[in-house]
Design brief:
Six copies of one chain form a homohexamer. By secondary structure, chain A is an alpha/beta fold. Chain A is about 35% helix and about 25% strand. The longest helix of chain A is centred in the C-terminal third of the chain and has 23 residues. The first copy, chain A, is elongated and about 65 Å long. Chains in contact: A-B, A-C, A-D, B-C, B-E, C-F, D-E, D-F, E-F. Chains D and F meet through helix 3 and helix 4 of D and helix 2, helix 6 and helix 7 of F.
Chain lengths: ~220, ~220, ~220, ~220, ~220, ~220
């Protein structure tokens, strides 16, 4: 990995997207003592090759049972606040009633330069969003509108997304193996260790291909 | 959308399949006061491009623990009763024991002209059914036979499929976003509103692409 | 099906992979009185065309909450013990905390000649394992390492995998419809019946295509 | 039952508490077409003889992950708004993180004259509340404080409590069999039918005691 | 234990009720090779001292979504068929919609001489049934009527009750520790072993009271 | 509260049992920054007045599917190691297959002077254990023996009990509101704060009884 551009989020995220992956980031997080940073396994990408990396902008939806005045106000503000390199992270307290994301929000988020969205809840318009190439992760797909079912009550507060507490500004990385949250203060330490570990894995993989046993590889390199 | 052929199910369903989708039908159902018409999110299509639309023929399976005499009688009658444009809708009370659908039933249903099947339960022979192009939605895939595990006890009674009560003759629409049930008496009202909403969405999408904020679009059109 | 090579596992498994499938094996197991041999429906292949067949080598993982000495010892021994034609079958007591399988273990298993792995638990490195063509079935995908989260405590003891008790040496067969376990002593009886049933299904399918009702087909052949 | 004091809530509720019970109210609700009015079976009284009846004052709690300013404001307002004959009905979207009720709130509610509380969530201080004789129903018992875990975001909006939508002013009736919600506009019709049904049951019970079969009783009275 | 009256069910059941308990019966069932005979732990008695023992009369309820003609026919027949010493065992496929048991059925069952009921589903009228002293076990308490929610479709067929398959005539034993099913053909063997084990436990308990370690007791008697 | 005997566990635990309770200990733990110390709400005492306090001796059980040699070895060692003031804390990875505790183990634990047991899993012999007065908390009641179902694989390692990580030597406190774990290093700080809070609550309760609103009490004392 080249010298890491820690002073330029966009460049850094592009490099992470190209060279790192969620599993090695988890291992690096373990090394620096963050062991609860992988979201629940039911938060899945909407297509095989979706990869997301960016700064978390969080929002919280809560179930409602009648239409509300200004029910879209906070959600509109959250999405309109997105800047290039941001990732929208939404919590719904695992609602199975509402659907908090869809094509128009994806369109608006992309237009603002956002890198993707991670929803602990449902999305709709999935075929269209796949075609747009917008990296989207969610717990399920459900065709209903949120009006009268769920309201975003605030944004940029800490939220529970996939049983990880995500604070605004944390770096979110998602690929086919899952979604990982890197606390903003640990970013440099995590990426440096992850980059180092990628190289190590190339060596052990090579030895296994050549026929070494796991025992031999582990005794030699001390890692699996 | 052209003048809608409400007197010709087959033409109407073909037009719906081509121009509508589950999300916009949900929105239209909301407008006419039906707010519980989307099936649970774990009822999924067996491939990305499956779309089903048609009149519901319902059947109910119940778990059993020994072989029964004439155990296939009601199931055979249900499938043999299918007419062009019908969709088989099966409930199993969310059984994880039996598998109520498979390739031979799909073959028989297609031969009768049925448009697809929606199963609140398990199916098998999925790769073959994908190849046949039969639109199939289910909660899971499981390789066992139903004999001695589940029996269809009746058909064309109201059933719970995905937590929506489906009556025979209701119109079922399913795509990648989920499965929606349109009560037969609301069909015209729902389709007319859905067709109108499709056009509205094209406009808002366009504005968002051009860089308008959600706030601006919402203030101008009053919808998301 | 030609004369079955019951004295040559590798040939037998190749023939099974080519000509049989999980659903017909379930039906044959039913015929010989084994009715609980299909794993829970949430154990899924990591790609559409994954097919696995082979002799079970079992291992058991248990959740832990601190790193252990020699934590990889049993897991390394299990994987290094794999012989051509084996399938690694892992139980985690449905852990949602750890991830028991990944790319390096897949690489090591393939290098030993193993035919695949079935995990009642999570895997990671899924995109890489797909590319390797290693047939892998699991309950979910999760990017964390097992160190300090789960430890393999033994191997080649009976385990619960997907609510089927699997003993070392049982034959495991998995495809898109699910994973089935054939007790080692029932192998010949099951395969012979499965082969016979495949032929029968070709005939009934043909008649349904020609327009026969299910009733007619069932009355004539006595099976569905 | 004497002439029912529909113009005096307190008298009416006292009479209901003495002479009616949740099961007969459900049957009466069925008769007038309300069939979804019994809360989920996991909402249980904290002691065997708890009976609650009164007008619903609703409130909604949502999980949070850091302390908030004025986090108690809405909860305080809700409890301080209670009038004699009211029942506090709280929804937490089935939170397992927070505990929305306890002894001090019970004390405050009793001091205002409230008749009890029904919580779709957890309570604490249960032994003390039992001693106070405050009728309390909840889904569980959990010793944590709500501060930094859950915040009441509003009150007297419709809420989902035990999968029944409860509107402010609906009449809530709970006993050992469960909690039932009587929509305010249906109150008179429901109580009149319930009172009539109580008398009918006394007759059928008597006949069964004397040895009549269910068949005879059903044929004679047409009910079970 | 005196000579066991295997030719007189009523005497045998009275003796079992007095001297045996579910845990020791499980241990005896283990000894004779039946290891799946304890019902799921969520089937609980309605009071602390409920003990039930008797011959199973089984019935199966299935959810429905509209009233049916003759909806009570099978349920009436099942209860009216009860003879002294019988226990009603009901399966609902774990329905959370209906309530299959209540006071009138308890009254009718007691009047026929039945020894109790075990319901894999909900009951109502629980306080009254407690007062009647009718031993009742169920998964929950729910105040609704079954009409239009569930229908008994047959009786005296094998059913799944608490994940144990119960056949008519099996002996059911339930106390505060749970409900156990003794296959009818194993009854003598199980009771003889259970009676022997009760005596052994008295000895080991005594030694532990006197201060022996578990190690000493286990080394001496070979059991825990 | 008198001067706290931090140098004498037995005296300290007796004082805690008499004057403190789980809710106030949770609040004190919150104050010192431990916010995840209450076990899941499904770990319940076996009777209303059970209170347990003591030093954790932990053990871990794992499901097995055949009898093992020396299957009781670790469990015997764990229980025989108990000293006065200890509490046995057992994890089973939430097994619904085995039953890890019962009367003989309770007898042995009491004979060693243990103060109680907390099981994230099932117990049996509950009526007897109630009569012994042994404070026992568990997730359920199930009559089977552990032999061939579960084996204790080690003791005095950190375990997950009710979703709290418990290390040997932590202080466990359980009453009707739930079970709380006090990390050993935080014991003094927690108890001092808890004692102070008990006094504060007496004052606010008094004011509410006299008719003060929650608002007034909160404005005056700054706590609820």
């Amino acid at each position: 990995m080249p010298i890491l551009p820690f002073d330029d989020d966009q460049k850094l995220f592009a490099l992470m997207k190209e060279q790192l992956y969620s599993a090695v980031l988890c291992d690096a997080l373990d090394q620096v003592g963050y062991r609860q940073q992988a979201m629940r396994a039911d938060i899945r990408p909407i297509h095989l090759d979706a990869v997301v990396v960016g700064r978390a902008v969080t929002m919280q939806s809560v179930d409602v049972y009648e239409p509300e005045e200004n029910e879209y106000e906070q959600e509109i503000a959250a999405v309109d606040s997105l800047k290039p390199g941001d990732v929208l992270v939404a919590s719904t307290q695992q609602s199975t009633r509402t659907c908090v994301w869809g094509e128009l929000l994806s369109t608006a988020a992309m237009a603002r330069g956002a890198n993707g969205a991670v929803i602990d809840g449902y999305t709709r318009d999935v075929r269209l969003i796949q075609k747009m190439g917008f990296p989207l992760f969610s717990t399920g797909i459900y065709p209903v509108d949120s009006a009268g079912r769920g309201v975003v009550i605030n944004y940029n507060r800490p939220v529970n997304c996939g049983d990880v507490i995500v604070s605004p500004g944390d770096v979110v990385f998602g690929d086919y193996d899952g979604v990982v949250v890197i606390p903003k203060d640990a970013l440099r330490a995590v990426i440096e260790r992850a980059a180092a570990k990628v190289e190590g894995e190339n060596i052990t993989r090579e030895e296994l291909h050549k026929g070494a046993t796991l025992r031999q590889v582990f005794d030699k390199y001390g890692v699996l």
